[in-house]
Design a protein that fits this description.
single chain; 75 residues; alpha+beta; 4-stranded antiparallel beta sheet
Length: 75
């Protein structure tokens, strides 16, 4: 349970804003929509959607900044 609590504290109170900081180029935080949030003993994972694309985001262990990777778009 401590890992989940620490992860929430690391993300802060605004997952949308934290996700926006991890996405390049940085979108307006209000434009980020978070879905499919999952928490585990090792960290958290979620999907962040912006007008520029869909990103898989995660925060693990003692990290303080999430990692967000853009999903490939179908051709």
């Amino acid at each position: 349970m401590a890992a989940a609590t620490g992860c929430t504290a690391a993300l802060g109170q605004n997952i949308e804003r934290d996700s926006a900081r991890a996405i390049i180029p940085t979108p307006y935080p209000d434009s980020v929509k978070v879905s499919d949030f999952r928490r585990s003993l090792t960290g958290s994972k979620w999907v962040a959607t912006t007008s520029k694309g869909v990103y898989d985001c995660s925060l693990e262990g003692e990290e303080t900044i999430p990692l967000c990777a853009k999903r490939d778009t179908p051709r």
